[in-house]
Amino acid sequence: MAKQPVLTPQADDFPRWYQDVVAKAEMADNGPVRGTMVIRPYGYSIWEQMQAEVDRRIKRAGAKNAYFPLFIPEQYLKREAEHVEGFSPELAVVTVAGGKELEEPVVVRPTSETVIGEFMAKWTQSYRDLPLLLNQWANVVRWELRPRVFLRTSEFLWQEGHTAHVDEADARAYAVRILHEVYESFMRDVLAIPVVVGRKTAKERFAGATNTMTTEAMMGDGKALQMGTSHELGQNFAKAFDIQYLDAEGTQQHAWTTSWGVSTRMVGGLIMCHGDDSGLRIPPVLAPVQVVVMAVRDDDAVIDRCRALADELTDAGVRVELDVRVETSMGRRATDWELKGVPVRLELGPRDLAENVVTLVRRIGGGKEPVSLDGIAATVGSALDAAQAALLAEATERRDSRTVDVTTIAEAAAAAATGWARIPWADLGVEGEAELAKESVTVRCLVMPDGSLPDGDAADGALAIVARSY
Amino acid sequence: MAKQPVLTPQADDFPRWYQDVVAKAEMADNGPVRGTMVIRPYGYSIWEQMQAEVDRRIKRAGAKNAYFPLFIPEQYLKREAEHVEGFSPELAVVTVAGGKELEEPVVVRPTSETVIGEFMAKWTQSYRDLPLLLNQWANVVRWELRPRVFLRTSEFLWQEGHTAHVDEADARAYAVRILHEVYESFMRDVLAIPVVVGRKTAKERFAGATNTMTTEAMMGDGKALQMGTSHELGQNFAKAFDIQYLDAEGTQQHAWTTSWGVSTRMVGGLIMCHGDDSGLRIPPVLAPVQVVVMAVRDDDAVIDRCRALADELTDAGVRVELDVRVETSMGRRATDWELKGVPVRLELGPRDLAENVVTLVRRIGGGKEPVSLDGIAATVGSALDAAQAALLAEATERRDSRTVDVTTIAEAAAAAATGWARIPWADLGVEGEAELAKESVTVRCLVMPDGSLPDGDAADGALAIVARSY
Question: Using CB atoms within 10 A as the burial measure, which of A258, A429, B50, B448 is most buried?
Fold first, then answer.
């Protein structure tokens, strides 16, 4: 019996496949207000895992969590000229509250550099108070005209780090540290997404930054997704909000600040990087459910053994779900778990039980084989490790094979139809960048030939990665 | 040398003491928009501990986390008459977004029964989909005219649980389960706050509920604070949002829903229940920092031993902070840790090191004694256990000794000047309740003489707990 596809095949229509999988894996729904989303329990459990892993790394880098208000006085945004220009078109504004027209409208935060700058100024007196390393987990609002769930929503969840330092070198070092030790490490080792780490061009820079650094991932259709950014803000916000400190010589100095963030957009990136025509494929290190133990039949001995098996794996530190919905067909249940991308299924029936085996089904890499119930935790552990490595290898292979070196703008535009192009920045330049933009192809970032970060907008030998993007 | 008080003494001015301790323990600041707050890193670390403990209990009760939008169409709120009437005066309304006047204004969620109701209706087809047990951690906005940090803020952080059930009995059982297994247990066993669990009168009920149950705590000044509530919503929201299911007999039925929440207000309750004239006192089970290891002198051997001691305690599962700020006086450092309410200080100097001891200082219960460095983890563990028990005992003793039994309204009002009064509901009634309200005394809840929950607004023998409140 030929299997009816549950999703639009990726090759037919990738955006439609994305919508299908978001809906059928019960990840999210569109909210009632245009551009907002409802993150359903399964989608949220993935976000919670992301939060836990990113939060651990942020704390290890020395930043402390805090919480700043959702509402920001409109005049705060106006204090930094580029910042207000960048964000004004996207703001949601509260004009009525407590039954009255407000004297000064307040904006719903699109990001918190301004309000956090105000408090950094209060909390910073001397160089001994620096570096001041803060982070918050929050919702932000940027009104979207072309929303797409997880990728581009009017409200999204994120963390935003904000730090203040005594000098430019310390600020830069910290922004780079976050980029590598928090973001790149998390994306590669947890999400199994081999991001390219680079510097944004002046055109693509965050509004108010002196330097924006980024992590860019290639999706299944060859497009790019900006997964997270880390900004040097120079003294722009320090001057606008008067973040000053007394240095060791007793002189007042303006601090140097940074900001950096990743958001629920990463959930969209995870789906589009690893998903296939059967649904999601969640890397085991991230997966809220790493293994599902399924009872094949409504048989007490089978169900009891499944429970014991689930307990054994839980005790071994595996995140397990037990599926004893024996009234539903195995085919339907297997399809559901494939859609949800659970890395390993263990299917147990009466015959397996008699032979002391269980059928291990791999979502990643494929394959279905009976394995002994003795030492099952180790067997499962190996399967999970292999799946994690396979996803990263597959994504790396795709990224590398679909990135081509070119030297002309026409070649770059052509390559961006199916993947990424790499072109010397000296051959592209600001004008070439503008030309590509007309065809919706953008410079995702600048990188040095050895993979390191260029130290300026026009670093000698820098390469531009150009692509279409989400 | 007489110690200069760092805080306004509680006996002089309790509200002023509260403001002082919030500021000096670096818990929070007022935000720039009226009624909002900035939760500083130390305050936020306490909230994170609360979240972790409550979240674990919620998950154990079977509810799953999800996330619903901040913005709710104005018309959603209007669908449930009491609900809109209750919340209208407190709403913040977005009328402009993306540079344009919105056709339909959207409200910033004051609570999410309405938008979650809309999605429960989509996700519920048959009785097999029920119970549907959801929770979200989010910020909400209720415009406050008389804001007070943590206790009453225009924006606050909370969890809101929302569930749908096949019948009234199941809904009630779950709302009661959350009240006891999540809230009461967390407050007693983690916060060391012996809450009274009761039923709200009709006057104090949540807007749209058929029954509101509450956990009420006595603060250090004898006033009451509502710490958390759990509501039966009957079929009010199910009818307004069409949450229907097909029952086992094939008939369409409306579901029965509940909602329940606790918020950052609990941080205020923690401060006011346990704080003293030296600052906060954080129960060890909750404390983000349970023990601070302090080097008394700038001496390499001392500092090395402090580091080793901190590592040893960390390995034993204790949450430790190392304080080697030897350039600052011990007095100032000790005062800081007292303000922050860290349960145990371990002070190590050269003489201690020579004698293989460390000075253990108890924030709770008091006392300062040399203890052997051998077996220090066990010694510290006992001190923390004793502190946890002592805080609960002290708060219980205060609650019980300052609650008096009365039979007249005049006596109840008089008792509420310094504590709580307990009066038979039959002697008070709706009219007595209205009378007390004129003197800012409210019925905090109704309880049965044996401490159980009354099963209706006029349960035979029910007692009313009346008090002034925050």
Answer: A258
